[in-house]
Fold each of these.
Amino acid sequence: MTVPLLVSCEWLAAHASDPDVRVADTRWSLIEKDKGRAAYRDGHVPGAVFLDVDTDLAAPRGQGPGRHPLPAPAAFAAAMSRAGIGQGTHVVAYDFGDGSTAARLWWLLRYFGHERASVLDGGMARWTAEGRPVESRVPSHAPASFEPVPRPGLVADAEAIERLREQPGALVIDVRMPERYEGLREPIDPVAGHVPGARNRPYPTNVRSAADPRFLPAAELKSAFEQLGAGSGEPVACYCGSGVNACQTVFALELAGFRDALLYEGSWSDWCSVPTRAVATGK
C-alpha cells in the first residue's frame, strides 16, 4: 500500500502505536554537534528512535565525496535494523521542524529501495505547538531485517553536475542561503560561491515560516519550481553544503509532482574541493 509523503501530527498521534509504524527522530545541528541527541534525551515523540545524521545517515568523511557521503548499504541496513525498521515498516521521520534532516532519512530509505517512508509536517515544532505528549524514555525495539537495494540513478556526482549545468532545459538548484550562494560568506567550506548556472532556492522557502515550519501547499511549490525552470522534462538536481539539506528540496519537488530529482551527493563541499572546477559568485 502506498504511504503518504507527508503526514500531519494528527495522523501520527492516531498511528504512532501501529505495529508497522516506526517514528524516527533525526534532529541535528551542523554547528552544535550534540544538539539533536540532547533534544531527543530531553523529550521526543513517544516511541521514537533516534538516528544520527553523522553516524547513521552518512558515511565517515573520506569514504565518499563531500562531508556527508552516502552510507554504505551494509552500514545503513545495520542502522535500520537496530532501529527496528524492516521491509514492511512505515517510517515517519521528523526533525526540529522544517524537514531539513527528516528528508535525509526519507531520501536514504527511498534510495535503498524502501518506499514506505513519510515526513512529519512541521516536525517537533508543530508537535509541541499542538500540545502533544513527549517522553524522555528511550524505547527498545526488536531488531528487524532490512535489505538495501541501492538506486544509483537517484544520485548525481560532480561530472553529472558539470554536464547538467550546460544542458538546455536541465535545472541545478542550490538550496543554501543567498549569502553563501552569492559568495558573500562561507562559514564552512574553503571556497565561496556556487556552481555556475545553478539557481538559488534556499530550502527554508519550501515551508511556511520559521514559526510554522509546515511545507507549503503542493500547488505553491509547483509554481515556485516552475519559475526556477522545472517542468521541461529535463533532469533536476539539488545540492547544498554536503548533501543533507538538499534532500528537503528533493522532497519538496516530490510534493510538487516533480519525481526523481537527483541529489548531488557531495554537494558544494565536493565541488569546491577541486581547484579546477568553475565557481560563480553574485546573484
Note: The beta strands are 6-7, 21-25, 49-50, 90-94, 117-120, 155-156, 171-174, 199-200, 236-239, 262-264.
Amino acid sequence: MNGKNPTSIVIGVIGLGHIGLPTALGFAELGFTVLGADDNKSKTEAITSGDPTFHEEGLTELLQRNLSSGLFRVVPDIAEVVSRSQVIFVCVGTPQRDDGSADLAQVEAVTRAIAPLIDGYKLIVEKSTTPVRTAEQIKRTLQRYAIKSKAGNQPPAFDVAVNPEFLREGRAVYDFFHPDRIVLGVESDRARDMLVALYRPLFANNTSTEEEISRRIIITSLNTAEIIKHSANAFLSMKISFINLVADLCDATGADIAEVARGLGLDPRIGAQFLQAGLGFGGYCFPKDLRAFTRIGQEYGLDFALFEAVEKINNQRVDRLVDKVRQALWVVNGKTIGVLGLAFKPGTDDIREAPSLKVVRRLLDQGASLRLHDPEAMSNFRQTFPEDNPSLVYCVSPYEAATGAHALIVLTEWDQYRSLDMARVRELMELPVIVDGRNLYEPTTVRALGFDYHAMGRP
C-alpha cells in the first residue's frame, strides 16, 4: 500500500499502544515520514526491534516493513517528535478513575511537555478518547506553558484538533486503511487542510468520487468530534445490552434469539451488527467509555440512567453464564471444565475487562478445575492467573482443553473454534456438555452429535 507522499508533512505520534502504533504505521505505509515516542522504554525497545508488543492481525508485518523503509522510526523523547513534526497525534491512555470519569493526567502531561518545545506552527491532534471540552483544556494548557517567541513576545502558532479513532481491536490495521468515516474536529482552515491531506491518500486507489470523499470526511467543531466518539461507543454498548436482555426473554420463553436478531437486523433502521447475543462486551474501550460518558452527563446535570442500565445488563452476563454451567452440571465443585477463549474478543490478545476474568474466578471459587485455551491471550492471562495454581492448566490446543472435561464453555468466538472436529471433542470429554457463551455453534448440529448443548437465548 506504500504510495508517494503527497506533501512534506512529517507526522509525530506520542503513545505507541493499541491506537498509536497502528495509526503511526498506517501513515507510514501511505508514504509519510512518521516519528513515534512512548515513555515505556521496554515497549520502545521491542518496537524498534520489530515486535509490536501486542497481537493485532497484520501489525508485525507492517511494523517490520516500515522500519526497514525508514518511514517509521521510534525516537527517544517527545522533544524530537515536536521539533521534527508538523502534525502531532496524542495517543496516550485515558484510564478510568474510581468514579467512572476519565483520568486525563497523561494527556495533560504530554500537553505540558509539548508546549515549551513548539517552534513554528504545529498541529496538535487529540486522538485519545477524551470527554467533551478536553481539546479546549489542551489548547489552554498549550497557551499557558508555551515559551513566548522573541518576536513581539507572542506565543508560537499552533492549532488543536480532534480526530477520534474508530479502530476495532483485532481489525485495527484493516480499519485504518478502510475507514467508514473520518471525523475531524478543527478550528481553522489550516488545520482542516493538513488533516485532509493526511487522509486523502486512503482514497487514492479506489473509485471514490470527490462527493463520496466529502461525505466520509466529517468536518466539525472540537466539542462535536469528542461527543461523536463517546456517543458511538455508548450506542454500540447499548445495542449489545439490548440484544442480551432480549436473549434472556428468549431463554425464559423458548424463543430463539438468533431468529429474533435476524428479524431485527434486516430492518435497515436497525442493522445486523452488534446484535449477537452472548457474554456481553469487554475490553479497554466500551466499559471505560460508557462509564465516562455517563459521568459526563451527570456533570452537566443530565439523566444518563439509560447508560447505567446498559452497564448493569452487561455486568449480569457472567451471572447468566455461570448459572447455565451450574444447571448443566448440578454441582460444579470437583468438576473439570474446559475453557475456550480468554481474550475479550477474537483477533486480539487483550484481556482487559474480558468476561473470562470473572468467569474463571467464579468457577475457581466454586471448586472447579479449569483447562484453559486461547490462541493469543494465554500469556497475558497468566499474569492474573499464574499457572502454579493446581486448579488451572494452560493447554496448547482446544482439544487438550476438552480432554477429560465434564463441560466445555466458550468465552471467545475465535474462528478456529468454529471449525473444530466436534466428534473428536466429544470423544475426548468426560461428559459431552457445552455451555456456549457466544452462541458459536448451531444447536441442532451439535446436539445431533450427542452434546448436551446450552446457549444464550437459544432453545
Note: The first strand starts at residue 10 and ends at 14.
Amino acid sequence: MNSSFLIIAGLGLFVLSAAFVRIFCGYAIKRGLLAIPNARSSHQEVTPQGGGIVFVSLWFLCLLLGYAFGWYSLQELLLFLPSTFLVSMIGFWDDHKELTARKRLVVQILAAIFCVLILGDVSSLHLSNYSVLTLGWAGLIVAVLGLVWSTNLFNFMDGLDGLASIEALFVFGIGGFLFWNAAAPEVALLLWTMVLAVAGFLVWNWPRARVFMGDVGSYCLGFLVALFSLVGDRWYNIPMTMWIILYSVFWFDATVTLIRRFKQGQNLAMAHREHAHQRLHRAGYSHAQVLFGVIVLNCILSGIALWALNTDSFKWGFAITMLILSAVYWKIEKLKPMNSAVCS
C-alpha cells in the first residue's frame, strides 16, 4: 500500500465526511429527523439527528473498496459487512420511526450470532500474552452478549455533544495501533478509516453540536468495538484486556449505572439522565467542559493500555484503570448523587 496514496485518501475521507454531514443536516430538517429537547435530554435546542449515517456509509464504502483491491478476504468481508450493516440500518430506521426495544434486540442478537459463526472458535479469551481464559461452549454466549451489550451501551452513553465521537476516536485510533503492532495493517486501516470518517462528523458534532449521530451511528460504533476486540483476540492474539481498558470510560459508566438503576427498581427501558457524565452536566458543567474531562481521562487510559501492552502488565493496567474510574465516579456521585426515582 502506497503511503502517499493513503494519506491523500485519508484527508479526502475526512473532507467528504464533513461535507456530507452538512448536506445531511438539510435532509434531516426536511424529513423532520430531529431530536426534540425534553426533560430527559441534555440539549436545549432542536437538533438534526441520524448524522452517523454519513460515517457509517463511508466506512462501508471503504471496506468494499478494500475488498475490491484484494486487501480483505471474503471471510473478512462477511464478518464486517452484513451484520454491521443490519445493526446500523435498524438504528437508522429507529432514528426515523421509533421501534420497540424487543425488535431492536432481536436484530442485534441475530447479527451477533452471524458474526460469531463467521469468526469461528470463541471458546477462550486472551487476558494477556500468556494468560488464557477458557470458556468452552459458554464462549459463544459471552461473545454474542458482548456484541449486543457494546452496541447498546454505546447508544446509552451518546448523551452529550461530541462525547460518542471522541470515545470512538480514542478506541478506534489506539485499537488500530494494536492491529498494526500485531502485523495486521489492513485491519488497522479499517479502524483508522472509521477514525477519519468520525472526525469529519465531529466537525459538526463538537459543542455546540449542530447534528447528532443518532442510533445509526452509535449502534454501528458500539457493535464494531466489540467485533474488533473479538477479531483481535481470536485471529491476532491481542489481549481482550487492552480493549477493556481502552473502552472503560463508556462500559464502566453504562454498566454501573444500569446495575444501580436495576437495584433501585427503575424501568431500565426508560430514557434517563443518570449516567455519570450526564450528572456532571446537570451539576453545572458545560458540554465542552465534560468533553474535555473525558478527553483527559481517555489520554490517561490510553497511556495505561500501551504501558500494559509493552510491559505485559495487564492485571496491573486493569487494576489501575478500575481505581481511577471508581475515584472519578465517586467524585461525581458526591457532586451530583444519582436519583433513586424519576430523573430530574
Note: The radius of gyration is 19 Å.
Amino acid sequence: MSQYSPIKSHNAAGIIKLGSVTRGWISGLAWSPNGDTLAIASAGGLALYIQGFGGAPTQLIEDAHEGPVKAVAFSRDGRLLATGGADTVVKLWDVDDKSRQVHLRVSLKGHVDAVEALAFSPEGTMLATGGVDQTVRLWNTEIGMQLESFVGHEDQVSCVAFGLGGNVMVSGSWDKSIRLWDLKGETRGTVLGMHDDWVRHIRVSPGGTLLASASKDMTVRIWDLYEATQLAIYQAHYAGADAVAFNPSGDVLASSGRDQLIRLWDVASGDLLHTVEGHTKPVLALEFNPAGTMLAAASGDNTVSLWAVPR
C-alpha cells in the first residue's frame, strides 16, 4: 500500500514536499500511465526517472533534439513517448516493456518553427502538435505521417489537448484564444473563448468534458466543452498563470504561475483549497501521477519537485 494518500479536496492542505532534482531549464513533464516513470523535457535533453526519483536520471538523452526539448507526452497505453523540439521536429519513441527506457522510432517533420506542445489522442493512434508557426497539426502515430495541418490562430500555438473522447482537439495561443477543432465534422477552429492575454496552458479533465486554461492574464478558467461555455474564472496567480493539471478523479485542479506558487482548487465549488510555496522562480509545469498520490512541479529555478500527502 502506498505511504501517500490520493490528493483530494479534504486533504489538500496536508501536502508536503518529498524532494527535488535539478535538470536545467525545464519545459515539460509527463508521467507514464503506470506511474513508474517521470519524463522531463528541458534544455538539457530528455531525462527519465524510472522507479525512483532523485539524483541522476535512469536514462538521459542529451541529443534527443538539436536544441531544447519543448514538450513531452506518453500515450495512454504507455508504449509510446512523444517529444517536440525547438528544432521543429516531433519524435516518437518506443518504450521498452522491461527496461522502460526509450528508443527512437521515427522523426516527424512538418512544422517550420519550434514545436511547443503535443498530446496523444485517447487511443494513442493520433498525436496533436502545436508550434510557433501558428499551426496545429495532426499525425498518425502508427504510420508516422502527418494527416492534417490546421490554420486559424494568429500567433504561436502554446498548448494542445484532446477532448470529448478524442473527437475534438483544443488549442491555446498567444493570440489569447482557445479554439476547438472538430475531427468528426466540418467545424474547424471555432473559438471556444478568449483570455485577456496569451494562453499558456490547457488541460482536459479526466472525463473529457471540462477544460482548464492558464493565461498570462493571471487567471485560470474552467470551460464546458459540450456546451462551449465558460463556467468559472479563478483569480489565480499574480503576474500570470503558467500551468494547470487535474487530479485523476477530476475534483482537484492544481495551478501554478509567475508568483512561484502552486495552488490547489476544488473544481466543484471553485474554492481555493491550499497554496504551496517552495520554488524560487515561476512554476512552469505540473503533472499528477496516475494514482493521484504525487504532484510533480517544474520551475524556472531549474528544479522538479515532488509533492504528496502522507497517510
Note: The longest strand covers residues 102-109.
